[in-house]
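[User] I have long wanted to understand how a fold can be written as tokens. Those tokens are not coordinates but codes from a learned vocabulary of shapes. Could you go through the record with me and say what the backbone is doing? Thank you; the sequence and its tokens follow:
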Amino acid sequence: MRDRRDTLKNPEQELRIFRVRAFLAVLTILLLTGLLMGRLVYLQVVQHEVYSTRSEKNRVRVEPLPPTRGLIYDRNGILLAENRPTYNLTLTRERVEDLDATLDRLEELLALTPEEAEGFRIRARQRQRPFQPALLMSDLDEAQIARLAVNRHRLPGVEVEAQLLRYYPDAQVMAHALGYVGRINADELKELDPGRYAGTHFIGKTGVERFYEDVLHGQAGLRQVETNARGRVLRELGRTDPVPGQNLTLTLDKELQLLAYELLDNRRGSIVAIAPQTGEILAMVSAPGFDSNQFVTGIDFASYRALQEDIDLPLFNRAIRGQYPPGSTIKPFLALAGLAEGVITPEKTINDPGFYQLPNDSRRYRNWLRWGHGRVDMERAIAVSNNTYYYSLAHELGIDRLHEQMSAFGFGQRVGHDVFGESSALMPSRDWKRARFNQPWYPGETLSVGIGQGYWQVTPLQLATATAVLANRGQWVRPRLARRIGDDEVPTELPDTPDDIVISNEGWWDRIFTGMEKVLSGQEGTARRTGVDLEYRMGGKSGTAQVFSLGQDQRYNAEELAERLRDHALFMAFAPLENPQIAVAVIVENAGGGSTHAAHLARAMTDAWLLEEEAPDVEEVREVMENDTGSVAGN
């Protein structure tokens, strides 16, 4: 009988199945091997250039090289703004895996306060261009640098960079004129040229630093470096050097600037001095000042709030933004306008009973001397600062001609060539009042303008500029702060300079100057005490700006008023009379009469400029002011 196992097993069939399976397995292996080899060929041969470039990028990095910011000097080559080496902490977000964890480590390592940590995180998350490092902290100390170096392996994307940081040696005195640089913010980043500002963390924010940013900044460079897996630089492969910013030489005289600041003695006010023939601003001080170096590295919130809340407003640039009634300082300008318009002659006189009345008006517009000056001509009206004469003159001129004539001297407009943030102040007019208040102009308002009160507002820079134009006998030279950019001189004749003021009789300038000289040297001059022992001829005019208006029968008594309600003291002057070398405008807030305070400061400035070997002693000037009882208070 046949074995049943033979009927259950078919060797031939099993052999065929084995061969088919073996064939399929070999075929699969061959196909997979072919695919693998094909992919290898594709990557190694076809895509060689692509992956070779990617590989190169993994070990070759392009780094920006920020330019060195140009230095700023005074007219005598004294350094006003320099660059000091420092270490900054930066973070490149694209190289950081966990931003929050990295920031936590940094805050712990640097022992930041909660306030500093908040600013830290804000700067880390500010929008930056791809692979552009964000500046987290400036001016690291040695201990901080050491802690960061030890923990470098835990901080991918974090670098400590050696850079030059702006520093102002005379920050308090120069803060408003020079301005300062600060960190580039997100809004500024959108507007800046990415190539030119690559790697740059600071930009001019105010003053000269802001106006001449394009000149001072320069052009960024770059370098190619080879790095290891941890990002550490192994060697430099190529470099395009940055172009440093140009140095800037200003017209300011540091010693004169320091003197002006010391003369103000921390009182609220401003002193501006200009060389009339060239328009060079010799000094431009606003007091009180502030430490501009705080803003370079980033001022802390508490310090900034203290500056903002300071009642004396140290951040406010009074020299170019402070707006004050010019008071009697504008009387020489009005006299010239009356001559030019044929309203008066130098010999014409009026009788001053101590007040002026408009036709058919019972209101009395008072002279500062209540019993009047009697018979007054133009020169005497300037010397004694007679209000009645100028009420009459303003009424005859009318606001339209008065506005036109005063605008020719620069009132009501920005006068500086390169003065960033300057205010135009206000030269009122009929059209201005209609647009501002929807009201007509009244004759009484013209009288107020005629003695520098009412709506009329000037800045110290405007008043100094108008004084310089007057000293130049009508020739306009626009004020400027830059004397040289690099090695190139800034021209005296600048574009959009206003037209010169031309009058029909050149002798009228001399008559105006004579009246101004009598202010200081005449027996009745309001600032006669200031003119004692003058070694040169000087013309000036005192002024008193009211902080609030008095009623018709009210009398001003400074002793009864709070200090900040007292009148502002003003004085404008130029010297020497025959060949003016300096024009000065002084405003001291709430100091009372200009002849008993501001005039002495103006005299000290002209002495310092014209008598270099006999520079005034500040303490002596203060003593003279304290003992000055002979000048006219209130004018």
